[in-house]
Amino acid sequence: MNEVAVVQQGGALSVAQIKQREYKIQWQREMRRRFASKHGYSTASYYATGRLRAQVLRRDDYKCVRCGMTDPEHKTEWGRPITIDHKDKNRKNNALENLQTLCLRCHGNKDLIYRLRWPKALSHRGEIMARRAAGQTYQAIADAVGLSIAVVWKWIQLWGKERA
Ligand SMILES: [Zn+2]
């Protein structure tokens, strides 16, 4: 990179500043990785619930409030911790009473977000079903096609029914 190639509001950045920035990004990435491996969920989901995730889980006895699936059962079935849902679908409303523990299945059934993603999901239909038929996890498929795991799960259920 050119020494004065990166121009920000404050003017050109020196090589030292650029290196410092790269170091900071790597450090932040490492911190996020450590957080995820320690807690079992990402910093993103931690901040999305106003840092109340642990409190909500404790209150709900680490179980889906709809079907009773436990967090360990969830990790076994889905390969990731149980989710925290915003009852009113407003992600900024992190009042404790607006948050509830839900498994991905109940979460997917509740939220109709997948309808909004229909064109995108439809364009990936062949790939999604082929990957599922090959035994890939919902998470792996979601990552591969860039959709949320709940959306992928929901569409696989619906498409599966159509064929049956
Ligand atoms: Zn559930």
Structural commentary:
The protein is mainly alpha-helical and 164 residues long. The chain folds into three domains: 7-36; 40-110, no CATH class; 112-164, no CATH class. It has helices at 15-39, 43-48, 53-59, 71-78, 104-110, 113-116, 118-123, 125-133, 138-145, 149-163, and strands at 7-8, 11-12, 83-86, 99-102. Strands 1-2 form a two-stranded antiparallel sheet. It has a two-stranded antiparallel ribbon with strand order 3-4. Bound molecules: zinc ion (ZN). Zinc ion binds at residues 64, 66-67, 69, 102-103, 105-106. Zinc ion (ZN) is lined by residues 64, 66-67, 69, 102-103, 105-106.
Give a concise summary.
By secondary structure, the protein is mostly helical. The protein contains 10 helices and 4 strands; from the N terminus they run ββααααββαααααα.
Fold topology:
Elements: E1 7-8, E2 11-12, H1 15-39, H2 43-48, H3 53-59, H4 71-78, E3 83-86, E4 99-102, H5 104-110, H6 113-116, H7 118-123, H8 125-133, H9 138-145, H10 149-163
The structure holds zinc ion.
Zinc ion (ZN) binds at residues 64, 66-67, 69, 102-103, 105-106.
